[in-house]
Amino acid sequence: MPRSISLSFQNEKKKKKKMMPFSFNLIVVLIVWLSFVPIGVLAAEHQTHERHEQKKLRFGPEGEFKILQVADMHYANGKSTSCLDVLPSQVRGCSDLNTSAFIHRMILAERPHLIVFTGDNIFGFDATDAAKSLNAAFAPAIESNIPWTAVLGNHDQESTLSREGVIKHIVGLKNTLSQVNPLNVEFIDGFGNYNLEVGGVQGSSFENKSVLNLYFLDSGDYSTVPSIPGYGWIKASQQFWFQRTSSKLRRAYDSKPQAQKGPAPGLAYFHIPLPEFASFDSSNFTGVKQEGISSASVNSGFFTTMVEAGDVKAVFTGHDHLNDFCGELTGIQLCYAGGFGYHAYGKAGWSRRARVVVATLEKLEKGDWGGVKSIKTWKRLDDQHLTAIDGQALWSKRSSGSRRKKRIPSA
Q1: What is the per-residue burial (b if ≥16 Cβ within 10 Å, else e) of 378-400?
Q2: Pairing assessment for the beta strands 114-118 and 210-216 based on DSSP bridges
Q3: 56 belongs to a structural domain
Q4: By CB atoms within 10 Å of each CB, which of 122, 312, 320, 322 scores lowest?
Q5: Along the chain (411 residues), what's the average pLDDT of each consecutive run of 10 residues?
Q6: Contact 213/276 with Cβ under 8 angstroms?
Q7: How many domains does the chain have?
Q8: Angle value at C-alpha 55, between 54 and 58, nearest 5 degrees
Q9: How far is residue 324's CA from residue 286's CA, in Å, rounded to a whole number?
């Protein structure tokens, strides 16, 4: 071997010897670090995605998708928590368990494909252990084996868990499709912003398309800006995420196979109503308005954002327990569910209630199912017969497609 090559070879060996301790030490450090990281933390994102894939939402073989909305349970400590604003004859023995019983009755009566809890799921001030209260509040949904989701209200974080802690606990419960926040989003305000896609009937030409899009947002709790009093609102970062998600879903719906014109209809769920809910009076809504609209004291523009996106056909909120109306504004239905929980404030003699929404698909030739044809809603009361009231059409493909711009008279 030539001397120059021999020296070069020896130098390389020396370099490798110097590098080996460093590389070995780095590997040891990594192994030790990984041994202390909980497996659940490393696998959480994968498991959540996997669980959602396994429970993909889809229209039933009859061409319908039914959603049960439960607003403002205000669950606390179960049997020891008394009811508020009930008739004198109802006081004795009334507790959080009445709320649980109402959920059970609604599930049996309606057999929904999805249950949506729109915030103030627990009443933090009275819940001594947030985790236990959350477990008990959602127990009827969990036991039903029906997929369910939840967003946060302004009272959920007032017990022993932070706002982030509450949504993380919810995400860990059985059968839920709730998410802490969207994947692959660097920053977004709040906790519990996510969307779900509802596929067409299995075996139909639309089975691989999302024909109904569901948006869930954190409307906040209270303003953190000293000069702005009152409740929170949907922030710019959340609206940006909504816009991007809506655009992405529209592109997918407009693409082959079964390319469509325009977006699939969408529904939005959050807790605190938008300022636009104050646009109605008894002449232009269905239901009742028995208290003021407790929205944020500023308008963050989310209603306009939804109008511009063009896919959301209805918004569903809670927060104001004595309001249960739906009113249409600029092509979007703004709907309350009405108070559900017995530990929430209410009105004696005015039944607790829940809202049901049903989307129905269009029947195509040769028995195939197409996109969504119509969206309807009604409410059920927690009375002896679970009385259904205020049935109404929220949206239909025909009425939407037949709209024309108003002609402006010439001067």
Answers
A1: bbbbbeeebeeebeeebbbbeee
A2: unpaired
A3: no
A4: 322
A5: 42 44 40 37 45 77 98 98 97 98 98 98 96 98 98 97 98 98 95 98 95 98 97 98 98 94 97 98 94 98 98 98 98 98 98 98 93 98 98 89 40 34
A6: no
A7: 1
A8: 125
A9: 8
**29 found inside a domain:** no
Torsion of CA 83, 88, 93, 95, to 10 degrees: -10
Neighbours of 326 (CB within 10 A): 22
- Cα 19 to Cα 24, 27, 33, 292: the distances in Å are 9, 12, 21, 72
Alpha-carbon distances, residue 28 vs 19, 24, 41, 282 (angstroms) = 14, 6, 21, 71
**In contact, 192 and 216? CB cutoff 8 Å:** yes
- Terminal alpha carbon distance of the chain: 101
For 66, the token pair is 């039914």
Angle at the Cα of 49 from the Cα atoms of 43 and 50, rounded to 5 degrees = 85
On whether residue 350 sits in a domain, the answer given is: yes
Which long-range contacts does 7-16 make (Cβ < 8 Å, 24+ apart)? none
Q: Which domain holds residue 215?
A: 64-396
Q: pTM to 2 decimals?
A: 0.86
Q: What is the CATH number of the domain that holds 197?
A: 3.60.21.10
For 7, 96, 177, 283, 334, the CA distances from 265, given in Å and listed in that order, are 74, 36, 20, 26, 15
Mapped onto helix, strand or coil, the DSSP state of residue 272 is coil
Phi-psi label, residue 216: left if phi above 0, alpha if psi -120 to 50, beta otherwise: beta
β pairing state of 64-70 and 369-381 = unpaired
CB atoms inside a 10 Å sphere around CB 215: 24
Dihedral class, residue 340 (left if φ above 0, else alpha if ψ from -120 to 50, else beta):
alpha
Asked if residue 346 belongs to a domain, the reply is yes
